[in-house]
Design brief:
alpha/beta, Rossmann fold, four-stranded parallel β-sheet, 12 strands, globular
């Protein structure tokens, strides 16, 4: 897709996102019916892939509009309060291909962001065949294959290069590059969510509804802008009726539909200025996921895990992995210490915030 085509799609997306809440709900209901008809035209069934509050709300919207519809989830990855709501809503539970512990031990920790974790994974391996790519990640200079252009988009930010670029320090003599005492990977979602969900869909000849929204940002936003709400491609087919919803729209819809809110989110409340929010977690994910943790204030997701399930917290923070050189048990605590995120002190009585390494630095 050309830059001009993408710009045009962005402009259209902004128009949809600026619509009033009621118009967005009406559009979402229309997209639901369009997807049902698209599935029928292709001899497919349809189902809802369910995780946290966003997709739980989507499931209730679809059932309100269309009637009963199958729903699936890899529930074991979710907080226990989310699992309880899944049981209430008769969501079919499917197992991950690999466990959380297997992922951390075999591949590494999901930290910073999915895109950055993939780049860090390249930097942690001494790979002669990937030198051009690695040089671009370290410096932004793409060499002959990239017509000798410079790309800040491909380049990893200096603060992460310093922490993870030790194997290729010679490429950046201006930085004090280190090698992290743990592996980093972006493969957790593939093994634990994407692959098992895809297998279930193929076995049941079904195409999914997903609770994705552009307002989540990142690669999801780009994909939703390019492909719209309903998309059938060569290898992928999915419907995202909440494409143009903001977080405020989503929370209002949850209130309108009387969605059962899992305890991890607390309650949906309205502040004096009219803004809706949840009183505990604003977003959730797998209990061992660290994507974006460096941008959260305290109490962050691991602090809430400590409050809700101290034994599970102890395992993930200190004991889920073993150092191959020393045999020492370690976990997310080592990772968070390394990237400058507080975790060991009690955030409710002795919180000193995050380390200053990331102040004003973005993701």
């Amino acid at each position: 897709m050309s830059a001009s085509e993408m710009a045009e799609k962005r402009a259209i997306a902004e128009q949809y996102k600026s619509m009033p809440y009621a118009a967005k709900v009406s559009l979402a209901r229309s997209r639901i019916w369009e997807w049902v008809e698209t599935c029928r035209a292709n001899d497919k069934s349809c189902h809802v892939s369910v995780g946290g509050l966003d997709s739980i709300t989507l499931l209730l919207l679809i059932r309100d509009e269309y009637g009963d519809i199958p729903a699936i989830s890899i529930s074991s990855l979710e907080d226990k309060s989310i699992q309880e709501v899944h049981r209430q809503l008769d969501v079919t539970v499917i197992p991950p291909i690999k466990s959380k512990v297997q992922i951390l031990r075999e591949y590494g920790f999901p930290v910073i962001s999915k895109a950055k974790a993939k780049k860090i994974e390249y930097l942690q391996k001494k790979d002669a065949d990937k030198q051009t790519l690695i040089h671009a990640i370290m410096t932004g200079d793409m060499g002959a294959q990239g017509h000798f252009q410079h790309s800040e988009k491909i380049k990893l930010q200096d603060k992460w290069i310093e922490l993870f670029g030790g194997n290729y320090a010679a490429m950046r003599p201006d930085l004090k590059c280190q090698c992290a005492p743990f592996k980093v990977s972006d493969l957790c979602c593939y093994w634990m969510k994407e692959l098992p969900a895809d297998r279930w869909a193929k076995e049941h000849n079904s195409w999914p509804f997903l609770g994705l929204m552009q307002s989540e940002g990142g690669q999801r936003e780009i994909g939703l802008i390019k492909n719209g709400c309903n998309y059938v491609g060569k290898d992928t087919a999915r419907s995202c009726p909440l494409n143009y919803f903001s977080r405020q729209d989503l929370l209002q819809l949850a209130l309108d539909l009387n969605v059962p809110v899992p305890r991890i989110y607390g309650e949906i409340v309205r502040d004096p200025d009219g803004t809706l929010r949840t009183t505990r977690a604003q977003r959730t994910g797998c209990s061992m996921c660290g994507f974006g943790i460096h941008m959260e204030g305290r109490p962050h997701r691991f602090d809430r895990l400590r409050e809700d399930n101290p034994k599970e917290w102890e395992f993930w923070m200190r004991n889920c992995c073993e150092d191959p050189e020393t045999g020492e048990k370690f976990g997310w605590g080592r990772v968070l210490d390394y990237i400058g995120v507080g975790w060991e002190n009690d955030p409710y009585t002795d919180c000193v915030g995050q380390a200053s390494l990331f102040d004003g630095g973005g993701a």
